[in-house]
Amino acid sequence: MKRSLFLTSIYLINTVFVTSELFSSAEKRDDWERIVGGTKAANGSYPYQVSLRLYGVWHFCGASLVTPRVILTAAHCVDRLKPEYFKATVGTNQLRAGGTSYAIRKVVVHENYDDYIIKNDIAIVFTEDEIEFGSKVDAIELNDEPVEKGEDLVLTGWGTTSYPGRLPNDLMEIDLKAITYEDCKQAHESVNAVFETQICALTKAGEGACHGDSGGPLVREGRQVGVVSWGIPCARGKPDVYTKVEAFMRWIENTLYEDDEDHLKYLNRRKTNRH
């Protein structure tokens, strides 16, 4: 497949940035305030949600809080992006108000990330300072068990509400259903490869992820199963594709241990307490 055709067929969902024109009127905000087919999330309802922002201002990707210093996102969000160029904002469901921003110390992109076929699309971001937890800020547990067809999943993010489109101010949520690897692979056979290290979700046309949702968490019963990676822009009735967290648990644990084994101890404590 020629690269030019490839890029017009699928999308990495992080290409639209906030501009001064974005919130020009209350009437326009009302039109934009929904993920494609989703609803506004209640304040404080997703304390693990992170907004990655260029220079701490312009949202470009979602992410999730894993430990007080560790954030999980998509590789395509931060690949070749220097830590000093962005910050992580937590503790708010609004892009224009509230929350606390933290400087980034280090970015680790999966060593086998392939941006051509969009494989191993996962990265870990380490904050400079420890993130303060509270009622609106907390870590998400990572899923290490298989996800079956038809299971209920929840996606949250500040992605655009249409294609092309602009970012909403409020965090949006949408209920999705897991589909099988075989069904997802078949749905995208003429577009791009789907790998067993990915998980797919879908409900119907008009519901799904869009630009700005990239890197954000797909969750089952309070545990993160996926990281938003790519899809057909936007909510056209094809399944969205997510990096499967379960398939990368060993890589995540090794990365945390190599940086500071305290990160891994925190992760393992949460896992032990769960059982």
Automatic annotation (TrEMBL):
GO biological process, one term: protein processing
Superkingdom classification of source: Eukaryota
Keywords of the record: Disulfide bond, Hydrolase, Protease, Secreted, Serine protease, Signal
Compartment(s): Secreted
Catalytic activity: Preferential cleavage: Arg-|-Xaa, Lys-|-Xaa
Keyword 4Fe-4S (UniProt): no
Keyword Transmembrane helix assigned: no
The protein's name: trypsin
SMART domains: Tryp_SPc (SM00020)
GO molecular function, one term: serine-type endopeptidase activity
EC number: 3.4.21.4
Signal peptide annotation: 1-20
Domain Peptidase S1: 35-257
Primary localization: secreted
Organism, as annotated: Bombyx mandarina (Wild silk moth)
Taxon lineage: Eukaryota, Metazoa, Ecdysozoa, Arthropoda, Hexapoda
Gene responsible for this protein: LOC114240912
InterPro entries with a match to the protein in the record: Peptidase_S1, Peptidase_S1_PA, Peptidase_S1_PA_chymotrypsin, Peptidase_S1A, Trypsin_dom, TRYPSIN_HIS, TRYPSIN_SER
GO cellular component: extracellular region
Database matches in CDD domains: Tryp_SPc
Enzyme class: hydrolase
Family the entry assigns: Belongs to the peptidase S1 family.
